[in-house]
Amino acid sequence: MTRVLIVDDQELFRESLKVVLSVSPSIEVVGAASGVQEALKSAAACRPDVVLMDIRMPGMDGVEGTRLFKERWPSTKIVVLTTFDDDEYVFGALKNGASGYLLKGSSVSELSRAIQIVHEGGAMLNPEIASKAIQQFSSMARGAATLQVDQQGEAELSKSEWQVIRTVGRGLSNKEIAGELCLSEGTVRNTISGILGKLDLRDRTQLAIWAVQTGAVNQGMFP
């Protein structure tokens, strides 16, 4: 069961989401808030797995809300919802740790699927903005500002950890990595956590960018 918190300043939209999502047997709506501050208080009590975050709200927008949530609860996944496909909001939310970005016009099935995908460690982007995100990611990954990692930690990476790094760089979810490398999803999660600790990276997005920058994605053999 995936625990979901809805954050949107429009009461009608919040209530509608609660109704349609409650139909899914794999989703439990544990709370709904009209703003970021209210959502943070609610999350402290209900500890959601996934937060559905409106991007444009009075007082504090979803970009900043995403940053605050990820600072306090790094394992909580954020899916940003908006009626706008503005680049500034898209990349701001992704940079702050959002795992998904969907337009409010998405179908219930798309939304439910996005919740399950991000809960399992993957990412979900609306098709209308996916190409923009990929272009931005490619630009970041190939830019001059290479991510710096702990050199000793990099030297200590095992062959199996390099294999996981390669798959993360290719954008695979934990479930997909587990299937490709014949591992359990729990082992994949623990391995990624260990890699992030060794390299002193914040999250799997930074790890994916580093994997592209270092060329690990295209290597068939690892140290």
What does this structure look like?
The chain is an alpha/beta fold and 223 residues long. It folds into 2 domains: 137 residues, Rossmann fold; 68 residues, Winged helix-like DNA-binding domain superfamily/Winged helix DNA-binding domain (Arc Repressor Mutant, subunit A, Orthogonal Bundle), CATH 1.10.10.10. It contains 11 helices and 6 strands. Helix 3 packs parallel to helix 4, helix 6 packs across helix 11 and helix 9 crosses helix 10.
Please sum up the structure shown.
With 223 residues, this protein is of the alpha/beta class. The chain has eleven helices and six strands. It has helices spanning 11-22, 36-46, 62-72, 87-95, 108-119, 127-141, 151-155, 159-169, 174-181, 185-199, 204-214, and strands at residues 2-7, 27-33, 50-54, 77-82, 100-103, 124-125.
Which architecture of the largest domain does the CATH hierarchy give at level 2?
A: 3-Layer(aba) Sandwich
The residue ranges in which pLDDT falls below 50 over 5 or more consecutive positions are none
- SSE order: EHEHEHEHEHEHHHHHH
Total strand segments: 6
- Tell me the structural class: alpha/beta
> According to CATH, what is the topology of the largest domain?
Rossmann fold
Q: Biggest sheet: strands, sense, closure? A: 6 strands, parallel
Give the CA-CA distance, first to last residue.
Answer: 39 Å
Assembly of the depicted chains = single chain
Specify the CATH class of the largest domain: Alpha Beta
